[in-house]
Amino acid sequence: MKIPLIFFFNTLLFFSFAHSGYQIRIKTENIHADSIYIKSYNIKNKKFTNLLASKFENDITFKNKIPLLSGIYIVEVDSVIVSEFLISDDQNQKFTISVLDNDIIIEGSKENSANRSYMKQMLLFDKQLQALDVEFKQMQQRGLPNYMMQPFVDTLAAKTNIIFAEKKAYQEKIIAENKGLLLASIIQTSMDAPQPPQEYYRDQMKLLAYISEHLFDTFPWEDERLLNTHILYNKLKTFAQQLYMLESKMAVPIVTKVLNESKKNRSMYYVLYDYLEHELGYYKSPYRDEELYIAMLNDILALTDLDETHELRRDYYEHELALISKNQRGSIAPDFNILLSTGDTTTMYNIESELLMLYFQNPDCPTCGELREKMKNMEILNHAIASGKLKIVTIYFEKNEELWRNYLQKRAIQNWVHGWNYDLKIEDDRLYDIRFIPMIMFLDKNKKVIKKDLLSNEIEDWLKKYL
Which of 168, 239, 287, 433, by CA, is between 20 and 30 Å from 426? Predict the structure, then answer.
């Protein structure tokens, strides 16, 4: 018997629609509210935004024939989060969430039921660790000598290691049971790094470097579904904050390592790169680290497929690298001509001082004025000038001579040196990386760069260091 072709296609269509789309039923107890929302994570805005909304009912169903994208979703009643749920693929998107007085039960989704159980178990592990921490602090308060404290400390350490081992085994079990699902990847992102060697705890920077280096050890870079969750952003935020606290020589190899790991998936690599560039490379960021950014620029420019995927990026990064490579620490600052407020002409090299601060500015720039006023009241700075060990030279490098002379009459600080690069070579020949002002550059007596782009809160610390 032959089945008519039209019947065959209609059957396929029926099963396609029968299994596609979503149907999320939400039941609540003893909740009174005006509205109920389902929110999805928007990585561009770095927050959950409204996806679906309705007038509140204690039993409501959101449904559509078009399936939800993979990711984490939250259910919000008015402005209160009452539940979350996971979507791993375009299947299995029909389930019920019951928000009870003392629990949340999810029926029809094994993954989301497993996620609820997982979160409960993680809370139990946290409570066990907190109890040990309380016990340790109580022992400290007893003021026992070290030889009496040590057996208690050893016992608590052994108990802590047992809890961590049980936690890791449980996480590995849930990952295996949910292989291929978003839940497995989420758990991988949160697994603890291996414990650092004991001696690292005596060196804060060494410990921080270790934690940063191993932050992404178990991260599943190949899973793009994490882009639709807040987990990746939170991880990147933590990573950037830790890197900022490290010296460049410690941070550079860590960033290079993590960038290489993320290359398993180009989309994830660019998200990581763009975030770190904004936080640590963007010239207006207070946390910028130029040595780190140069390492990042060299890394991305080495990608063979950069032109194919992001054709405008290469030109931008090459331009950035050329600019940021100027005036690096340890390099000799380029010389330039100066017209002084006295009417004499000289060069920067002819200004002799044990330490020199070049203050690149525009007199009409409000931020330049604010920083000048702040520096005018810095005690260590004024003492260094009075002792003859430091000279501050304000440099105006644009062509409005009248603006500069007006500044000299009304706003120039008396114990500073004030100059104008009258031949405009600084700007025309791009001698310095001054994409923003004010820019302070700290030089030694040989005009070698000690620090480029000295921030206001760093000035006195650097002076202490070199005086």
Answer: 287
Residue 281: how many CB atoms within 10 A of its CB? Answer: 22
Q: Give, in order, the Cα–Cα distances in Å from 265 to each of 235, 259, 343, 411.
A: 17, 11, 61, 54
Residues contacting residue 208 through CB under 8 Å, at least 6 positions apart: 242, 245, 246
- CATH fold of 337-466: Glutaredoxin (3.40.30)
Cα gap 125→103, rounded to integer Å: 19
Same fold, 5-108 and 337-466: no
pLDDT in tens, 129-185: 999 999 989 888 888 888 888 888 889 989 999 999 999 999 999 999 999 999 999
pLDDT of 110 strictly over 80: yes
Enter the tokens of residue 182. 């978003």
Residues 135, 156 contacting (CB under 8 angstroms) = yes
Q: Domain residues of the chain, as ranges?
A: 5-108, 110-191, 193-325, 337-466
Query: Can you read off the two tokens belonging to residue 261?
Result: 């790991």
**pLDDT greater than 80 at residue 243:** yes
| C-beta atoms surrounding 443 within 10 Å | 23
- CA–CA dist 397, 361 (Å, integer): 8
Summarize pLDDT for 62-107 with one digit per residue, the tens.
999 999 999 999 999 999 999 999 999 998 899 999 999 999 999 9
Please tell me whether the overall predicted TM-score, pTM, comes out greater than 0.85 for this model: no
Residue 409: DSSP 8-state:
H
CA–CA dist 6, 145 (Å, integer): 87
Angle, helices 146-177 vs 182-190, to 10°: value is: 160
Percent of the chain whose predicted confidence (pLDDT) is above 70: 95
**How many angstroms separate the Cα of 28 from the Cα of each of 36, 52, 98, 175, 182?**
11, 17, 6, 30, 26
Q: How far is CA 271 from CA 123, 221, 236, 239, 368, in A?
A: 31, 11, 9, 13, 34
Residue whose pair of structure tokens reads 């017209």 in the numeric block: 339
Burial of 384 (0-12, 13-18, 19+ CB in 10 A): buried
**Domain covering 5-108 in this structure, CATH number:** 2.60.40
Distance CA 360, CA 302 (A): 34
For residue 445 the two structure tokens come to: 């007596």
